[in-house]
Design goal:
Residues 317-352 form the EF-hand domain. Belongs to the MINDY deubiquitinase family. FAM188 subfamily. Its EC number is 3.4.19.12. Keywords: Hydrolase, Protease, Thiol protease, Ubl conjugation pathway. There is one protein chain. This protein is of the alpha+beta class. Among the domains are: 25-212, no CATH class; 318-382, Recoverin, domain 1 (Orthogonal Bundle), CATH 1.10.238.10; 388-450, no CATH class. The protein contains 17 helices and 14 strands. It has helices at residues 25-36, 42-47, 71-88, 100-118, 159-164, 174-183, 185-188, 193-205, 207-214, 231-239, 272-275, 283-286, 318-329, 342-348, 355-365, 375-382, 434-439; strands at 54-55, 59-63, 124-129, 166-171, 250-253, 256-259, 268-271, 292-296, 301-305, 336-338, 372-374, 395-400, 415-421, 446-450. The strands form five sheets. It has a six-stranded mixed β-sheet. Strands 1-2 form a two-stranded antiparallel sheet. The longest helix is centred in the first third of the chain and has 19 residues, at 100-118. The radius of gyration is 24 Å and the shape is globular. The two termini are 30 Å apart.
Length: 459
């Protein structure tokens, strides 16, 4: 686990395991509506009914996604797993091929990292799918393992039958929950493991709290029509907050407070939607604590990552902080503020604001007396250069896509490439693809030469 994250309490009172299903149908319906909306479609439920399954033969640390839909959970777990493998584990030099015990430990720690994001002082919950002892409804392989290799071989349960076989365990501390999770991690690698983990997170955070966070967007965590996870679900997995917004902090718009991302995340997020100018991802998601980013297309999520730690920034530069302050006075992001607002802007940045100096700055930045000051003119005057970030001339990057059809030879495996950030004056490459477009929202001049004959896909 990341030592900078919340320390697990080892001295709290021993918890009592409930080991029973949902206490009431009312609670089950409330949870169901929050996740699925008013109606659970059987085909969508079946697409989400897989476990955390690794591509053991080809890429032992890569999770498989069999159908479109559950990438919001699977990709987030994959991202946190890569964080453990690359930066927090003893097997980081052999991160692609840990032994089974090491992999189970890293998977457990990955799930715990996400638990920490949503955890409060309330009771913690862990859910497992526990079928009847005869397991008659679960098809088995030759070795008694659940068949999870394709959606067609997965158990055909309806949603009510699934709910009836869920067992809920309660804990007073995350440390006690971790012990139970370690003992039963293999269950999460079987059918329904993804859903059980998602339900565990939601009960741990609290239904009421998540409902309040979802009120702003008015959407369920899983799109009831197409079955993919919402932005609210992605943000819940990455940051512990089920907001649909990706900007930093909170914004006040015509008296309505919109909740954004409050702090720097461990794993980052970039989206093709920003490249298309429909949104702007804030510093907190663009600059995570580890060089790992979830990449979003309109309907799917993948992971871009590197071992190169110079790609991350621990703190915002002075120029970046100035841009944030400027936007507070330019909420519609027109790229300018009124000259009359200059004093308030400069005061927010602790710049000198005595009248004589202020008049001089106004005259210098608003030379034509138009009554406005542009953002670029203000930044060039007070923050001409941000702190330099030293990045190697070339560095290795990887891309993960959990859908086999989107990979080389239709096998889920990490795509490897050599990346560089070229100078603005250099001639950019002529190739264009969705991954490059998405990455350009953070690195406008990035160029990547991928190994193999197939360029990785966002979809």
């Amino acid at each position: 686990m990341d030592p900078t994250e919340e320390t697990l309490n080892e001295h709290s009172k021993k918890s009592v395991l409930s080991g029973v299903g949902f206490e009431s149908l009312k609670e089950s319906k409330e949870l169901t509506n929050l996740i699925w909306g008013s109606n659970v479609k059987q085909d969508l439920f079946e697409r989400w009914s897989q476990g955390f399954i690794f591509n053991n033969q080809i890429e032992p640390t890569a999770l498989l996604q069999y159908s479109g839909g559950p990438c919001a959970v699977i990709t987030a777990v994959q991202a946190f797993l890569l964080k453990e493998l690359l930066f927090c584990s003893k097997c980081n030099e052999n991160w692609k091929k840990p032994n089974n015990d090491e992999l189970n430990q890293n998977l457990t720690d990955s799930l715990l990292s996400i638990y920490i994001n949503v955890s409060t002082e309330k009771t913690k919950f862990l859910l497992f799918y526990e079928p009847d002892e005869d397991k008659s409804e679960i098809p088995e392989g030759e070795n008694g393992d659940n068949l999870t290799t394709s959606s067609s071989k997965r158990p055909k349960l309806d949603y009510d039958a699934f709910i009836s076989k869920i067992k809920v365990y309660s804990f007073a501390t995350l440390n006690e929950l971790k012990e139970k999770l370690i003992e039963n991690i293999e269950i999460y690698k079987k059918d329904f493991g993804v859903l059980c983990f998602l339900y565990s997170l939601i009960l741990t955070k609290g239904l009421d709290e998540i409902e309040r966070e979802l009120e702003e967007s008015g959407e369920a965590l899983i799109d009831p029509l197409h079955g993919h996870g919402s932005q609210c679900l992605t943000n819940l997995m990455l940051c512990g907050i089920a907001t649909s917004n990706v900007f930093d902090g909170d914004k006040c718009l015509e008296g309505l407070t919109l909740r954004g991302i409050p702090k720097q995340s461990c794993v980052g997020f970039l989206t093709i939607i920003e490249y298309l100018r429909y949104c702007e991802v804030g510093w907190n998601l663009k600059n995570p604590k580890y060089p790992i980013w979830i990449l979003a297309s309109e309907t799917h999520l993948t992971v871009f990552f590197s071992k190169e730690q110079s790609l991350i920034q621990k703190n915002e530069t002075s120029r970046q902080k100035a841009i944030k302050s400027f936007k507070q006075f330019d909420p519609e992001e027109n790229g300018f503020v009124r000259t009359d607002d200059l004093e308030g802007l400069m005061a927010s940045l602790d710049l000198l604001t005595d009248k004589e100096y202020l008049d001089c700055v106004k005259q210098q930045l608003d030379t034509e007396n138009l009554g406005i000051i542009t953002q670029i003119a203000f930044l060039n005057e007070f923050y001409p250069e941000s702190e330099l970030q030293i990045i190697p001339e070339e560095f290795t990057v990887y891309h993960y896509n959990g859908l086999a059809r989107s990979n080389q030879e239709n096998e889920v495996q990490y795509s490897e490439g050599k990346a560089k950030l070229i100078d603005f004056t250099d001639q950019p490459g002529s190739d264009t693809n969705s991954i490059k477009s998405c990455l350009q929202t953070k690195w406008p001049t990035i160029e990547i030469k991928w190994s193999g004959t197939r360029v990785p896909s966002l979809n």
